Structures are given as structure tokens and as C-alpha cells.
Amino acid sequence: MESPDFNQIIDRHNTGSVKWDFLDRYLHLNETDLLPMWVSDFDFQCPKEVLQALSSRIDHGIFGYSERDDLYYQAAMDWFSRRHKLTLHRDWFTSIEGVIPGLALLIQMLSKPGEGVIVQGPYYSSFAKIITMNSRAVIENPLLESSEGYKIDYDHLERILEQHRPPLLLLCNPHNPTGRCWDRDELLQLLILCKRYGTTVISDEIWADLILPWGKFTSILHLGSEWHSHVITATSASKTFGLASLRIANFIIPDPTLRQAFNDRLNAHGLDVFNSLSMTAATAAYQYGDTWLDKLQDYLAENRDWFEQALASSVPWCRMTKAEGTYLAWLDCRNLGLDDNTLQQLLIQKAKIAVSMGYSFGDRGKGFIRINLGCPRQYLKEAISGLAQLTT
Ligand SMILES: Cc1ncc(COP(=O)(O)O)c(C=O)c1O
Questions:
Q1: How many angstroms separate the alpha carbon of residue 179 from the centre of ligand 1?
Q2: Which CATH class is domain 62-288?
Q3: Mean pLDDT computed over 225-237
Q4: pTM check: above 0.70
Q5: How many angstroms separate the CA atoms of 222 and 213, rounded?
Q6: Where is the Aminotransferase class I/classII large domain positioned along the sequence (predicted)?
Q7: Rounded to the nearest whole angstrom, what is the distance from the C-alpha of residue 99 to the centroid of ligand 1?
Q8: Is the predicted pLDDT of residue 1 greater than 70, yes or no?
Q9: 18-47+289-388 belongs to CATH 3.90.1150.10
């Protein structure tokens, strides 16, 4: 199989791409000359093996109702065992079209309207959306900024657990937007506190496969079976292999009662039928995607190094947060002393890039922007030239 060329620029316009075609609808931006560096999907073709598997499935030509088959689950279990040294049981898996819909169902299942769900700010904006739109409250445990990256504030966490007794904590690991990978000790401390107050931890591990060479991913499931009654994990091949629009995710729920309740919810919403193409793509990705992913991770690490150095030399007011995973750059723009609206206007008018504004990640994101580094290097060069123009 030929080597992937991540430098290749592929025009994504007019493909229904949220990132490229819908800036007006999602960001209310009508400018047509902006480089989109916002949504978390990358601008690379998925592995050739995946394209070939999809192509043969399409040639078959019949797309009736389908179910996830044993081949899919076996490929997923082998992947977690190979890549993460994690032994998962077939029974623990439940499949649904996306992580966000699954999280929303779990919020409905495990909390009551008016109750709170803890998130660690800055937090992924869809977390806040599914919490508030399901009539629950966001309880923020703000992360602490430090020179080694963001840290969990356990004192504050304990205070809010004690005060609100929330049924759920929604963890993001690796963390969007900061790129932190929580280590074993950090996870353990969090689990001990949550268990003490009867709070279930849902760990969104959608970014688990995109780890930088100096980072290490630890799943909440690595901590052992004694925590199983209190944890649920969400994963997907979608972020790893760029399959987001095909819609596929796994919810790994070791506790049989929680799992049965989740499956009942899926049935109650008619969510127990699946897209056959997503299964074909994800199975091939899990079976044959290792080499491609290793190369992607190298490219993303080079992208990050390149971007950090270019920022340091051409955009000195901007500070990049130390990350261990994801392809997201969480950039501190507070040195400019601008309010977020002015910053956004300058990014549009002078830098000509569409970014995710930090304030959409809650109060902790004010003065920050999130840039997607999952793109050909040429786009990073354009982004740096744009950012360098901001203060001229
Ligand atoms: C932490 C996190 N969870 C979930 C999602 C989206 O998952 P899905 O498309 O499967 O609903 C994203 C996408 O960026 C994400 O960053």
C-alpha cells in the first residue's frame, strides 16, 4: 500500500462539509475567503484500505437494515488490545451513531431535569449544549492553568461534589480543547472523589488514538474492575480515521445494569439500527489502520512542532498550550488585551481564518482560540501569515 501524502491539498468545498461549506450557518460568517481551522475534523483522506472496503460494499449495492456484526466488535477489541493494552469484553460494547447522541441519552438516563453535570472548563461546547438542552445544569470544575499544561482542581471538585451531589461527571480524555491526557494518578484521584459522592463518571475518549510522541493515554478502564460500577467510556474510530460523517461510536459499559438501561434507551428511541457503511469503514480501519495511523501521528506531531516554532518567531503575542494529544492547538491570546469580539473581527478581517473562539468553551476560554492542526502544512503556513498580520 502506498504511503499516505498528508501534504496533499484536497478541495472539500461542496461536499456538505460543516467545516468548509457551512461557516455561515454555524459561525454566522459570510466571508468566503476564510481558511477554515475550526471544527475538529481533519483535511486528510482516510486510509486506502478503508476506501477499498467501502468501495466493495457499495458495489454490492444492497443497503437494507443492518446490525453491527461480530467482525466489527472483534476488530474493535483487537484494536484496543493492540493500541492501548486494554482487554475489553464483547458484552461491554454498545454501539450508537455518535458519541454526542450517546452522551445525551446517558444524561437523560442517569440524571433528572434540574440536576447538575460536572464538566471541566474550558469544556467542549457540545457538552454544555446536551446538558442544558436536556434541562440539566452545567457545573464547572475549572481546570488550573500551569506551565506544564492544565491540571484538575481536586479541592474545588470535592466542594462541588459535596454541595451539589451531582449524578454525573463528564470527563474528556484526551481533553478537548487543551490536549491534556489525564494520567493514572489523576484519574484515580478523580474516581475516588466521584465514588465517595455517588457520581458516575462518563469518560469521553474519542481522541484516545491521537496521542503525541511525548504523551501517554490512559483509559479510565485501565484503572481496573473495582471502578466498573461507576464508569462508562465512549470511543469511536471516527476522530482517528476521519469518518465523522459516517456516524459510528462505541459505548463501553462494563456494568450489566447500566448497560441494559442504555440498550433499553436505544430501543426506546429507535436507535438500534445502523448504517452499514460506517460499520464497513470502521471495521477496515480497526483491522488495517495501524501503519496509516502511525504515519498520521508523526505528521501531526511535526505539524505541531512546526506551528509552535512559527508562532514563537512570527506571532510572539500568542502562547500555545502544552498538549499531549489531539490535533487541536489551544492558543492564549490574552497578551493582546482585546475583548473576544474585537479579537474575532481581527481574525476574520486581517488573519482571514475561521477558528473556534475560546469563549464557546465557557468562561475559562475567554481570550483563547482553538485552531485545528489536522491539515496539510500549507494551511498552517497560511494561518501563521494571517496571525502575523493581526497586529499590523
Ligand atoms: C470530545 C469530543 N466528543 C465527541 C465529539 C463528537 O462525537 P460524535 O461526532 O461521535 O458525536 C467530539 C468532536 O469534536 C469531541 O471533540
A1: 14
A2: alpha beta
A3: 97
A4: yes
A5: 20
A6: 37-385
A7: 6
A8: no
A9: yes
